TrEMBL record:
The keyword Transport is assigned to this record: no
Lineage of the organism: Eukaryota, Viridiplantae, Streptophyta, Embryophyta, Tracheophyta
InterPro entries assigned: PP2C, PP2C_BS, PPM-type-like_dom_sf, PPM-type_phosphatase-like_dom
Domain PPM-type phosphatase, residue spans: 23-329
Organism: Populus alba (White poplar)
PANTHER family reported in the protein's UniProt record: PROTEIN PHOSPHATASE 2C, PROTEIN-SERINE_THREONINE PHOSPHATASE
Family membership: Belongs to the PP2C family.
Swiss-Prot/TrEMBL keywords: Hydrolase, Magnesium, Manganese, Metal-binding, Protein phosphatase
Cofactor (UniProt): Mn(2+); Mg(2+)
Annotated Basic and acidic residues bias: 9-20
Name of protein: protein-serine/threonine phosphatase
Region (Disordered): 1-20
UniProt-listed Enzyme Commission number(s): 3.1.3.16
One Pfam family this sequence matches: PP2C
Length: 407
């Protein structure tokens, strides 16, 4: 059986959601591929002020991409740097932690549950028999104990996955990327790439690969992998003298941070099944066009797939799995500008109004008594309203009050 089906699977798994800060839509489609190896994660309320979105494009199987979709965001939350506000460090540590968690008996068992190979059933049985904590199969991120069993020496999977993740906290956008999935934001209709595709031909990637003992043939690491960074792919991470960041293929992500502003309209996270068919600007233009008539963001993602899907498998482009997340920023309710931010004319008007009010305040006694037909005593003293005297037909009310008004 080849890598392509005789006809594409065009069923789409889609989802929409929102909170008071943003709304999102996502979709995925298997397409011409014989298996679906993409995965995604969408947590608009990772905490009260933070949203998390990620796309994971697997290769060699679906186990690693599904593992990342299940656990990576939890590892971000766990790290102490997240609580201190250092989102970039928490993302980096979470990416590297994925490789650590996929080792040993526990990692093998979880990958077998998530994977699509024939070991899936036997793996679950063996894991349950040999694991001293078998009841924790669905445990949370903070419960990842070492387990004894026939796969205790498991180094990790030879399949792998890209990971492109965006965290939005208040007006801060932090993107972490390893591989050739991509994040793009639209700012006043212009596409700005928040990630860099990690290909072996890039100078920084080529240098690391060679320093770690690897080589590049026809744009592929050791002649096989067309990515230079990925989670998983343990066969390229066997140099015991080097840290994880310096291996032939590394899970260490690039981190990019920007402050969002009113010019930022939306962001897109997508796998290379989209980017092989459309440039970043082409996709931004297409999304803008669709937003004029379509309000459901997942539908826009689905239309992108239909646009990219190849009519046949002769060319290669448009034949991959496709996954996309579209996040649209809601406009926050803006507080009034400070005095320093007011235009000059506005500040002058405010200053003039303030002076006029001060004048009224200083002379309110005169103005009030003049309007009411009252007479002030020469020393501008007035009495309480209760001390009113009637002096004949003039009915002049003289108010005696123990306070002095400035003239």
């Amino acid at each position: 059986m080849g890598v392509y089906l005789s006809s594409p699977k065009t069923d789409k798994a889609s989802q929409d959601g929102e909170n008071d800060r943003l709304r999102y839509g996502l979709s995925s489609m298997q397409g011409w591929r014989t298996t679906m190896e993409d995965a995604h994660a969408a947590y608009p309320d990772l905490d009260s002020s933070t949203s998390f979105f990620g796309v994971y494009d697997g290769h060699g199987g679906q186990a690693v991409s599904k593992f990342c979709a299940k656990y990576l965001h939890e590892q971000v939350l766990k790290h102490e740097s997240y609580l201190s506000g250092d989102l970039g460090t928490s993302l980096q540590k979470a990416f590297l932690r994925m490789d650590e968690m996929m080792r040993g008996q526990r990692g093998w068992r979880e990958l077998s549950r998530l994977g699509d190979n024939v070991e899936k059933v036997s793996g679950m049985i063996e894991g349950l028999i040999w694991s001293p904590r078998s009841g924790q199969v669905n445990g949370h991120f903070d419960d990842w104990p070492d387990e004894e069993g026939p796969h205790s020496g498991f180094d990790g999977p030879n399949c792998g996955s890209t990971a492109c993740v965006a965290i939005i906290r208040n007006n801060q956008l932090v993107v972490a990327n390893a591989g050739d999935s991509r994040c793009v934001i639209s700012r006043k209709g212009q596409a700005y790439e928040m990630s860099k595709d990690h290909k072996p031909g890039l100078e920084v990637e080529r240098e690391r690969i060679r320093n770690a003992g690897g080589f590049i043939v026809v744009g592929r690491v050791n002649g096989t992998l067309n990515l230079s960074r990925a989670i998983g792919d343990t066969e390229f991470k066997q140099n015991k003298k080097l840290p994880a960041e310096q291996q032939i293929v590394t899970a260490n992500p690039d981190i990019k941070t920007v402050e969002l502003c009113d010019d930022d309209e939306f962001l897109v996270l997508a796998c290379d099944g989209i980017w092989d068919c459309m440039s970043s600007q082409q996709l931004v233009d297409y999304v803008h066009e669709q937003l004029n008539t379509e309000t459901k963001l997942s539908v826009i993602c689905e239309r992108v797939f239909s646009r990219c899907l190849a009519p046949n498998t002769n060319g290669g482009e448009g034949c991959d799995n496709m996954s996309m997340i579209l996040v649209q920023f809601k406009r926050p309710v803006q507080a009034g500008p400070s005095a320093e931010q007011q235009p000059t004319s506005s500040r002058q008007s405010m200053e003039e109004a303030s002076l006029w009010l001060l004048h009224l305040e200083k002379n309110r006694a005169k103005i009030c008594f003049s309007i009411c037909g009252l007479h002030l005593l020469p020393d501008h003293r007035a009495a309480d309203a209760g001390d009113v005297t009637d002096k004949g037909n003039n009915r002049n009310m003289v108010l005696w009050k123990k306070m002095e008004y400035a003239s």
